[in-house]
Specification:
The protein is mainly α. 63% of the residues lie in helices and 1% in strands. The protein has helices at 9-23, 25-30, 37-46, 57-76, 79-95, 100-114, 119-128, 135-148, 154-160, 181-190, 195-204, 208-220, 227-232, 240-253, 259-264, 271-284, 290-293, 302-314, 318-330, 334-351, 355-359, 363-377, 392-405, 418-424, 430-440, 446-464; strands spanning 168-170, 175-177.
């Protein structure tokens, strides 16, 4: 790879891809004359056996120009260019050659020429070549395919499901997209109609990355059909990372049946396993976990201590507050001392009292004080007496406007906040919210991710209402009371 001032062939190639996706293949075709067979052969040859690691900067510059010219010729030839590319692919297949750079580039060209009609061939190239050779070629094409929400794109998305090492950089937003965010950009943009495919992958695949990817995407979508598979298959998988993903996902789901398993995991002798169970308990949001978590503030493992601290600051209880203060008094790390001091100070300031005044309170008063602190944390979901009302009809109109605009800000429903949606939405609206979430990704920016998280938090809260009496932090996570007949 070239240094900071060197020439990156990958970046040049990515620029070509981005230009084609933004301007459309027609802009390049307009600049190219109808290509004859010899010109097509020459263009294909220019794309074969490229090894940037073996090139000097000058050679990379020359090759980048040759790649650009070859793309123009092949795109300009339209169907003839696609046919020539597929002939070369057949040659590679027969010879059992990889030539990853060519396969990935050919797939991108085929997308520009034939779009979804070429989906099977494109997906085959992504399966035949390491996608990390040039993930830009893969991601941007897959993203465009996902935006069509056409079922023909699913073969392409499935071919990406097992990729967790590729990343792309969006320079306009200084945004680097890594796994699993890369998969969210693809699958959540495609929409809820992709969930059955992910569920099938979770059931039938034994590819570790495919399992982890399907698990987190189904969890984010609150697809409860995944729960029994997470418990019966992924929690028992031979791969530790798959097991840990199952723990993470079960914490995010927060089903009443999983509390004991999550707490039991804190006894593991593996600090990484303990960390994942702590992460899961943070998301699970059950106050009963606090006495099990508090002793881990004194763990020898820094990451475990840090996550235990995070759990206790999220599940605000008197026992957690007092454990953090004690830890701050004896911690050897200045950073941990300061974090403990700041948290205790924030809680006391919120209540308008000193530590001495806190200690003078009864147990019931301390419980009430910490309950008030938790209520302040979740007030975005709490209805207000003078709230403007959002109707079911309003929700449908707002969602349409958000999807059309690819943002949840501005417009006639700019006044809508989380609490308005929680007050009117039901689990029947999960697909609607999933569609809104998918539309936000179209902006391909860091700014859209803040809005995505808002919608995903709503999906989780509304989805949890199907199997939890309290979708947020609870003294004890329990199933909702049976509905009256």
């Amino acid at each position: 790879m070239a240094g900071p001032r060197g020439v990156s062939l990958w970046r040049v190639a990515a620029t070509v891809v981005a230009a084609v996706l933004v301007l459309g293949a027609g802009a390049l075709r307009a600049a190219a004359q109808e290509a004859d067979a010899a010109a097509l052969d020459k263009a294909v040859a220019a794309l074969r056996n490229i090894d940037p690691a073996a090139m000097t900067d000058e050679q990379k510059q020359a090759k980048a120009a040759a790649i650009s010219e070859a793309w123009q010729v092949l795109l300009g030839a339209g169907k003839a260019g696609a046919a020539r590319l597929k002939t070369e692919i057949q040659t590679l297949d027969k010879a059992k050659e990889t030539d990853a750079f060519f396969r990935l580039g050919a797939a991108s060209l085929l997308w520009q020429i034939g779009s979804l009609d070429e989906a099977p061939t494109i997906a085959a190239q992504w399966r035949a070549a390491p996608q990390t050779v040039n993930y830009n070629y893969v991601f941007f094409v897959a993203f465009e395919a996902a935006k069509t929400q056409d079922e023909r794109a699913l073969d392409m998305l499935k071919a990406c499901l097992g990729e967790d090492k590729g990343s792309v950089f969006i320079p306009d937003h200084a945004l680097t997209i890594n796994w699993p965010l890369s998969q969210s950009f693809l699958w959540e943009t495609f929409g809820p109609q992709g969930l059955p495919v992910l569920l099938e992958a979770l059931k039938t695949s034994d590819h570790a990355v495919e399992l982890k990817t399907a698990a987190i995407l189904l969890t984010r979508a609150q697809a409860t059909e995944a729960l029994p598979i997470l418990r019966a298959k992924l929690l028992k998988h031979a791969d530790a990372e798959v097991r840990r993903m199952a723990v993470r996902c079960l914490g995010l789901f927060g089903h009443p049946d999983d509390y004991e398993m999550l707490v039991a995991g804190l006894k593991s002798q593996d600090p990484q396993d303990v960390w994942y169970h702590l992460f899961a308990l943070y998301e699970y949001e059950d106050l009963r976990a606090v006495p099990h978590v508090a002793p881990l503030l004194e763990s020898a493992d820094e990451n475990v201590r840090s996550e235990a601290f995070a759990v206790l600051t999220h599940l605000k209880t008197p026992a957690g507050l007092e454990a953090i203060r004690r830890h701050g008094d004896k911690a050897t790390s200045d950073q941990e001392k300061q974090a403990a001091k700041e948290f205790v100070g924030e809680v006391l300031a919120g209540a308008g009292i000193t530590w001495d005044q806190y200690e003078a309170k009864s147990a019931a008063e301390r419980d009430a004080l910490m309950a008030a602190a938790r209520a302040r944390d979740s007030e975005r979901y709490a209805a207000k007496a003078d709230d403007r009302k959002l109707t079911r009809e309003d929700l449908a109109k707002a969602a349409k406007g958000w999807k059309d605009a690819h943002r949840i800000t501005g417009g006639a429903f700019e006044w809508v906040e989380d609490r308005h949606i929680v007050a009117v939405a039901t689990p029947d609206d999960l697909d609607l919210l999933r569609e809104v979430e998918g539309a936000l990704y179209w902006r391909l920016s860091d700014e859209c991710l803040y809005e995505v998280q808002i919608i995903n938090n709503l999906i989780r809260r509304i989805g949890r209402s199907r199997y939890r009496a309290e979708p947020g932090i609870a003294e004890k996570v329990t199933a909702p009371a049976p509905k009256a007949p």
